[in-house]
Amino acid sequence: MPASIDINGDAGESYGRWTLGDDASFLPHVSSVNIACGFHGGDPATMRATVRIAKQAGIAIGAHPSFPDLMGFGRRMMTIAPDEMVDYTLYQLGALTAIARSEGMKVAHVKPHGAFYKACSIDMVLSKALGAAIAAYDPEMFLVLLAGPGADAAEAAGARVAREAFIDLDYDDGGLIIERVAKLRDSKVVAQRALRVVREGKLTKVDGRDIDVSVSTLCLHGDRANSAEVARVVKETLQSNGIMVRPLGT
Q1: Hey, is 114 helix, strand or coil?
Q2: Which of 6, 29, 92, 166 could bridge across to 65 with cysteines, CB 3.0–4.6 Å?
Q3: Phi, psi angles (nearest 5°) of residue 15
Q4: What's the mean pLDDT in 55-73?
């Protein structure tokens, strides 16, 4: 059983006058945050505010790039060329890097969002291109991807890949089931799911069958009505079972 695990949380997704999630309550219970960079959510002020919350909480920050899809919250699949995926990613990473640097913070990882993320898990050409781009930008930067062929392809292309499992979403034979609207989750159920991933390397799919997962980070979403409670219970459950929660690479 690993002595430690990272918990990464999606946050910073408010935009203009539209507010999504309670980042100030959620982020202290994770160890890394994936910050929206404007394409699916997040605006410059929200990005800066999220960086400041993360700095105060002592957690690592990462870019959460997406397809350019504000109306669909980055959940709609688009057909793009590998160089477009690279350019979209670096554009958004650059924006967050500038804000982070001005706050005395460093961007530690990149994790694609929504359909952008799904594309990397099913299209090896895209995942290889993204892996090579992140390796060229910063070989020490983590690229967070779903454990599977996409992560393997990105790693083979040179990226420092951190494989993850989702503990507040379901899986089927097609992989991860992405919710269009986040629903409430039972914090104790999610916590036990997290504990089983860390202890046994297993997740249960919606059909009741287990799948094997070997990961270094667990994902939680900050847009649920009870996200802060879920994150708190997950972290406390892991810690009470002798598992430290800390950022990738520490």
Answers
A1: helix
A2: 92
A3: -150, 120
A4: 97
- For residue 11, pLDDT over 70 is answered with yes
CB 57 within 8 A of CB 36: no
**Mean pLDDT across 129-149:** 97
Average pLDDT, the chain: 95
Model confidence over 76-97: pLDDT tens digits? 999 999 999 999 999 999 999 9
φ and ψ at 164, to 5 degrees? -130, 160
Whole-model pTM above 0.90?
yes
The three-class DSSP label of residue 138 is coil
Distance, in Å, from the CA atom of 133 to the CA atom of 89, rounded to the nearest integer, reads: 9
Cβ atoms within 10 Å of 68's Cβ, excluding its own: 16
* Of residues 170, 174, 173, 181, the one with CA closest to residue 219: 170
Question: Comparing C-alpha atoms, which of 201, 205, 192, 89 is closest to residue 136?
Answer: 89
Closest CA to 202 of 192, 194, 213, 216: 213
Alpha carbons within 13 angstroms on the beta-carbon side of residue 82 total: 12
